[in-house]
Structure to design on (503 residues):
């Protein structure tokens, strides 16, 4: 499976893609296996619309087997009770192996979901490696506490793993979203069952194989591919799963909470959608603001939970902003072949997402917004699920395109009178994942950061992230926090121990 060097040209990547041996099996209890009931689903390359492979489609039987293997490994203590530094060594080797397989990961996530190889090599893979390393390095820094009880007792707390954790992740950053959850879940000693999205199941299996190669014991990290409705639901309703760590849409996040309530009250953390506002004020550094607004909505084809899809611009600079935005988009985002290292924008993930995004574009026009750019398939790319970078102006915050998550390359620009109006519109949303403010006025920036209803705030910047910084939202954007020390807490629980010392 390992490609020794990174292909240099689009032709090299295509040669590799054409001759690659795509793994269609799942990974349960330390071994590759097909679905017990023999089901399959097609993995389609969205750049061409052609089928790449017939993937194993897991069902309840496979989930039961994976959960049983995970529970066995957990009870046996092969991972959960391994010395903290032992887990650290394995996870650090795991991170090294991910880095060494960069070309494989770039290829798999590109051919399955349309991600550019440049994006994979420049962002997803290094970020995944950094996040696994962060979790590994934190393992021996986790502490309990001795609390201030009466002299007659010693009371202390132990931070312990939850047990068997189900991880359900989306397709927009396949191996990266998985790594955000795997790092802390494994670091704390849990066993995991990962259910990737159907559009992007291959890189998950490679992650599990590399964990085993790094010395991870059998049963600790399992992957069950298959549909959300069958494999995902079986996992989220399982009576022997202690937690679901979920990233995906708001409606499915809601189902996770319902399934937990209807089964065993398992813990649920959700990272759901967003409609992040970028509030751009007249006293900002306009060049920087424009570039970040362009990247904020068009990177990863706009299929980003925190995409800066509501762009609010102070009237005094509105016209200039629009002109510069359109020029910079033309220079930075030309859709093309995602396997071309020079390409910065690929197709949307699948036919369905393509229809959804085109439906929102039609709705924007119906509701009276003006199409300033894009609006359909880019010229010459009628094959594959492409949408050109699209921008609506003359929009209002109550339009569908300003309220619902489009999850595609569609920005909505709204003029505002001042920061107060920007803040009010920013908070008029069911979502609260990311937000940014662009201004030279320090006090104004901090007021915005304090008052905006959002899990993450960027001041004169956008999308900055780091393993040390929590990632997650408020309101319907979810209740979880990925990355940072907080994530370790979310994959563990605290136990209270009393020892009677005598009077
Ligand atoms: P999705 O449709 O909600 O699916 C997410 C995952 O849930 C997939 O693995 C899916 O499997 C599974 N699933 C679907 N129905 C299920 C069910 N009834 N029971 C159990 N599992 C089920 O989301 P998506 O379309 O893959 O991803 C896009 C969404 O993810 C967007 O809303 C985006 O904002 C959000 N997202 C959020 C963050 C964040 O950090 N907040 C990060 C990335 C993405 P199938 O694919 O097989 O249906
Ligand atoms: Mg889906």
């Amino acid at each position: 499976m390992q490609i020794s060097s990174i292909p240099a040209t689009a032709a090299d990547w295509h040669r590799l893609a054409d001759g690659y041996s795509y793994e269609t099996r799942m990974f349960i209890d330390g071994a590759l296996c097909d679905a017990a009931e023999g089901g399959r689903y097609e993995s389609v390359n969205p750049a061409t619309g052609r089928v790449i492979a017939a993937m194993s489609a897991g069902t309840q039987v496979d989930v039961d087997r994976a959960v049983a293997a995970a529970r066995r490994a957990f009870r046996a203590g092969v991972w959960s009770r391994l010395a903290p530094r032992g887990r650290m060594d394995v996870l650090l080797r795991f991170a090294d192996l991910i880095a060494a397989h960069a070309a494989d990961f770039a290829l798999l996530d590109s051919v399955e979901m349309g991600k550019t190889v440049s994006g994979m090599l420049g962002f997803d893979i290094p970020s995944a490696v950094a996040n696994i390393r962060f979790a590994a390095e934190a393992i021996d820094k986790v502490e309990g506490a001795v609390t201030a009880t009466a002299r007659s007792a010693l009371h202390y707390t132990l931070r312990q793993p939850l047990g068997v954790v189900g991880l359900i992740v989306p397709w927009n950053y396949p191996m990266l979203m998985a790594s955000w959850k795997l790092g802390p879940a494994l670091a704390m000693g849990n066993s995991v069952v990962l259910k990737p999205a159907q559009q992007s199941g291959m890189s998950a299996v490679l992650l599990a194989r590399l964990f085993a190669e790094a010395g991870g014991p059998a049963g600790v990290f399992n992957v069950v591919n298959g549909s959300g409705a069958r494999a995902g639901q079986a996992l989220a309703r399982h009576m022997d799963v202690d937690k679901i760590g979920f990233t995906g849409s708001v409606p499915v996040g809601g189902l996770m909470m319902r399934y937990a309530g209807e089964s065993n009250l398992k813990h649920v953390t959700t990272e759901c959608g967003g409609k992040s506002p970028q509030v751009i004020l007249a006293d900002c550094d306009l060049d920087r603001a424009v570039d970040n607004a362009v990247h904020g909505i068009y990177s990863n084809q706009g299929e980003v939970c925190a995409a800066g899809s509501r762009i609010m611009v102070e009237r005094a600079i509105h016209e200039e902003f629009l002109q510069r935005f359109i020029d910079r988009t033309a220079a930075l985002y030309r859709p093309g072949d995602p396997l071309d290292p020079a390409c910065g924008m690929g197709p949307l993930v699948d036919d369905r997402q393509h229809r959804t995004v085109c439906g929102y574009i039609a709705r924007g026009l119906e509701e009276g917004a003006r199409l300033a750019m894009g609006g359909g398939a880019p010229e010459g790319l009628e094959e594959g699920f492409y949408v050109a970078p699209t921008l609506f102006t003359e929009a209002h915050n109550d339009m569908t395109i300003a309220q619902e998550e489009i999850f595609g390359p569609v920005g909505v620009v709204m003029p505002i009178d001042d920061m107060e109006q920007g803040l009010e519109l920013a908070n008029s949303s069911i979502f609260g994942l990311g937000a940014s403010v662009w201004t030279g006025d320090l006090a104004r920036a901090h007021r915005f950061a304090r008052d905006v209803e959002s899990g993450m705030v960027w001041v004169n910047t956008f999308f900055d992230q780091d393993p040390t910084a929590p990632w997650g939202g408020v309101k319907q954007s979810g209740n979880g926090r990925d990355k940072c020390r907080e994530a370790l807490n979310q994959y563990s629980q605290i136990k209270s121990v009393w020892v009677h010392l005598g009077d």
About this structure: Residues 197 surround magnesium ion (ligand 2) (CB under 6 Å). The mean pLDDT is 97.
